[in-house]
Amino acid sequence: MKTLDYLVIHCTASAFGADLTGADVERLHRNVFRWSRVGYRAVVRRNGIIDRLVPANLNCFVEDQEITWGAGPINAYAHHVVYVGGLGKDGAPADTRTYAQHAALEYICRFYVEKVCPSVKVMGHNQVPGPFGKKACPSFWVPDWLDEIGFPSENVERSDPHGQANEIRGLKKIS
Length: 175
Ligand SMILES: [Zn+2]
What we know:
This protein is of the alpha/beta class. The protein is built from four helices and seven strands. The strands form two sheets. The chain has a five-stranded mixed sheet with strand order 4-3-6-2-7, sandwiched between helices. A two-stranded antiparallel sheet has the order 1-5. It binds zinc ion. Zinc ion binds at residues 10, 125, 137.
């Protein structure tokens, strides 16, 4: 059993305005992708409702049943959460978080530090090192956002293994 080192934020990269639920994401992963597990523990809908897909033990250890397929290299020591959105009307990566999604994501991040694992570090999918290389997901630079909301600095993962920070900072913000 590994320790819970990271909480990783993703976007669904679904069509602009698509109002997916947790059940939609679960169907996509299990029935379309034919994955044996879903990619994320929880889905933050556009209205801010958090749909939980996988229960967790709420401590600093990741048991097998808590593992989801969010980002290959780190799945065994991470939890993954996703907000619905991440693409603009033109299909290009954009920060489409609604006000409600901002609030729900902040709630989740603070909940992890305060109630689940005080040593956890929060990062974006685009900060995950490894063979899959660059990606825009979650279409915003997570360390900047965490600094904006006054998140504890020791819980912010600041690495930029693919050198993407500035590119991601330049993405459009539309919701
Ligand atoms: Zn992702």
